[in-house]
Amino acid sequence: MIKMCFPHLFSQMAESKQSGKLTSGDQQMRAQAAVVFLVDVDNTLLNNDRIQEDLKRHIERKFGREYRDRFWAIQEKLFEELGYRDYLGALQRFRVENPYEPHLVTAATFLVDYPFANRLYPEALDVLEQLRQWGQTVILSDGDVVFQPRKVERSGIFEAVDGHVLIYIHKEESLEDVVRRYPAEHYVMVDDKLRILTDIKKYWGDRVTTVFPRQGQFAYDPQVLASYPAADITVDRIGDLLEMDLANLLESRQPTQPTGAA
To answer: Can you tell me whether residue 242 is helix, strand or coil?
Structure first.
């Protein structure tokens, strides 16, 4: 399994705030915590559907509907190949098809300079603040090596968790590394994708509480809901977690035998 370098980079940046110097990933072993909160980004803290729609409108406005549809077809194909959204990679492929279109750089600039903080769900940062009062809180996301970290930083999420951010290619396949970096007796995973929550539940069993905020384009998809078991906790919006206490979160898990390492 190939992992992105960003787990090392973000952890080092967080450590440097306290120690004044960078430390290697192998030197960052922490004492086991009672509970660690793991929180997804896209359609969990950030309304990623709105970001996608804004990008589509920008491309249509600058280049026309035909270019918009072609770019999105490339983007979807790349998603099938990689398993995550690589918008900048899609733009690069689109450029290969249109090498003499000088204004393509505006689409890249639109993405890099996008005001991500405007797309935070209501009370998303308040939820992170509350979780941090209960225990170590870590962003656990997947995505490309440039755009996803940019999104996390410019939205204010990076600062809200004091730099504790892990970004993998496939986070559900990287749980062993998560445990190594943030060992805990129990985990709480907050994610808008039932598939991800199901995989994590299979791996950790009742060592994890899964939380499903029903946000985003697939949250009410009947096929998705029928394909996977319910999460331990389901809320309509991320801000609803502010109405819960720690005991509610930890006592709501369903007993399940883990398949992964302890």
So the answer is: helix
Listed in sequence order, the residues at least 6 apart from 63 whose beta carbon sits closer than 8 Å to its beta carbon are 101, 103, 107
CB burial of residue 80 (10 Å; 0-12, 13-18, 19+): exposed
CB-side exposure of 178: number of CA atoms within 13 Å? Answer: 34
For residue 257, what are its two tokens? 């035998």
Which tokens sit at 135? 């225990």
> What pLDDT is stored for residue 121 in this prediction?
98
d(C-alpha 13, C-alpha 22), whole Å: 7
Among candidates 44, 250, 11, which has minimal Cα distance to 128?
Answer: 44
Q: What are the structural domains, with CATH classification, of the chain?
A: 6-46+120-251 (3.40.50.1000), 48-116 (1.10.286.50)
| Mean pLDDT in consecutive groups of 10 residues from the start of the chain, 262 residues | 39 38 43 92 95 90 89 89 83 84 79 93 98 97 89 96 95 95 97 96 95 92 92 96 90 68 54
Give yes or no for a contact between 142 and 171, defined as CB atoms under 8 angstroms apart. yes
Q: Are 104 and 94 in contact (CB under 8 A)?
A: yes
3 state SS of 161 = coil
CB 210 within 8 Å of CB 255: no
Model-level pTM? 0.83
Alpha-carbon gap, residue 33 to 99, rounded angstroms: 52
